[in-house]
Design brief:
Blueprint (H helix, E strand, L loop, with lengths): L9 E6 L5 H16 L4 E6 L3 H5 L7 E4 L8 E3 L2 E2 L1 H12 L2 H15 L3 E5 L3 H9 L3 E4 L4 H9 L5 H13 L3 E5 L11 E4 L10 H7 L9 E6 L18 E5 L10 E3 L7 H7 L2 E4 L3 H9 L4 E4 L7 H11 L2 E4 L1 H6 L3 H8 L11 H14 L2
């Protein structure tokens, strides 16, 4: 593991590979911090592919590939596999002390000055042992998620204690709005929402999607999450004037279905250009849609602990309607979209958590 550059403090950002929401939270904070500290050296430690990281984190950064946490094992973007998740956590914690010691040695070799975790926890335990300041950043923590699905698994009590102890070892756990309450973390620090704001590329996106920028027609982004979840778009009924913007795995040979990758624009610029997004409850998509003023149709997972708070926050800050997951599969969405577009639009929230998080990190790097 080597750091990019050699003239400033060295930040190691450990980012969960459970979808892309953790990267979506972390990347704007890293960008804000680097604007303040141009000499900052950055290493990103994650099992996410480097290309996925580079789509949101500007170079230069060094890359250390590795599974820094478990997250949850998913069948698709909507379905957790509890038994497989319990086995994965048991394996991750089997040699806990030795694995933490390995991370301590890695931090020492890289001469890391600060750790930021969204939300891997073993690296936080290692930073505490190494005497390196560390900050956690996330709207949830894996202890609460693991406990919701796997509390009855063998060894769950010990695993939960190790997770919680690691998070408590951080100098602060920055919890961007809307976040879980996390009553077991006395170091929880609430901050404002975190979301990227897109540029106004509506005219260009509409042209590339086959719509006249000055005429009617609607763009609807279908974004089930960072975990590939193919949807049967080929069987969805056509909606007059609607173009579906879809992830590559859901592309279909229809003129009204356009892969998002074919538009030649960044994801957040495409999101801002759309008239609605269809998704599942997840921090990154909900926060970015609300802050960019994009209406949302969402299908719940049903048992994800973060969902009630996310949904309540979204309904307060954006035009939003819940749909049955079967509607997401059969594409019978015309009436739901019309009802969504008839709603009065609230004022979009501001992503104030970005600078608040950067303030905290900068203060630590400038501290004694």
């Amino acid at each position: 593991m080597s750091a990019a550059g050699a003239d400033g403090p060295h930040l190691l950002a450990a980012i969960s590979h459970h979808g892309h929401g953790h990267l979506a939270q972390c990347a704007p904070v890293l960008a804000a911090l680097r604007r303040r500290l141009p000499g900052l050296r950055l290493t990103v430690y994650s099992a996410l592919p480097r290309a996925v990281l580079a789509a949101r984190i500007d170079p230069p950064f060094a890359y250390r590939a590795g599974a820094v946490d478990v997250g949850m094992v998913m069948a698709d973007a909507l379905t957790v596999r509890p038994a497989a998740s319990a086995r994965a956590y048991a394996a991750f914690h089997r040699n806990w002390d030795a694995d933490v010691a390995d991370e301590v040695r890695g931090l020492a070799r890289a001469a890391v000055d600060l750790v930021l975790a969204d939300i891997p926890y073993r690296i936080l335990a290692a930073a505490a042992q190494a005497g390196i300041p560390a900050v956690a950043l996330c709207s949830l923590h894996w202890g609460e998620i693991y406990g919701a699905y796997c509390a009855q698994a063998a060894g769950a009590g010990r695993i939960l204690r190790e997770i919680t102890s690691a998070y408590r070892a951080a100098r602060a756990f920055l919890a961007p709005e809307p976040a879980l309450a996390m009553p077991d973390l006395p170091n929880r620090v609430p901050i404002g929402p975190i979301a990227r704001l897109g540029r106004d590329r509506r005219a260009a996106v509409r042209r590339r999607a086959g719509l006249d920028p000055q005429a009617g027609g609607r763009l609807v982004l279908v974004a089930p999450g960072g975990i590939p979840t193919p949807l049967p778009l080929a069987r969805w009924p056509a909606q007059p004037g609607v173009r579906w913007i879809v992830p590559p795995e859901s592309a279909a040979a229809r003129p009204d279905v356009i892969p998002v990758t074919a538009l030649g624009e960044s994801f957040v610029d495409v999101l801002r250009a759309c008239d609605a997004v269809i998704t599942k409850p997840g921090y990154g998509m909900f926060a970015e849609a609300a802050c960019n003023g994009v209406p949302v149709l969402y299908a719940r997972r049903g048992d994800w602990p973060e969902e009630p708070g996310l949904a309540a926050w979204l309904r307060h800050h954006a035009c939003a309607r819940e749909i049955d997951p079967e509607r997401l599969r059969d594409g019978d969405l015309g009436g739901e979209l019309e009802a969504l577009w008839a709603m009065p639009a609230p004022r979009p929230p501001r992503p104030t958590g970005i600078e608040q998080a950067a303030d905290r990190l900068e203060a630590i790097l400038h501290g004694p």
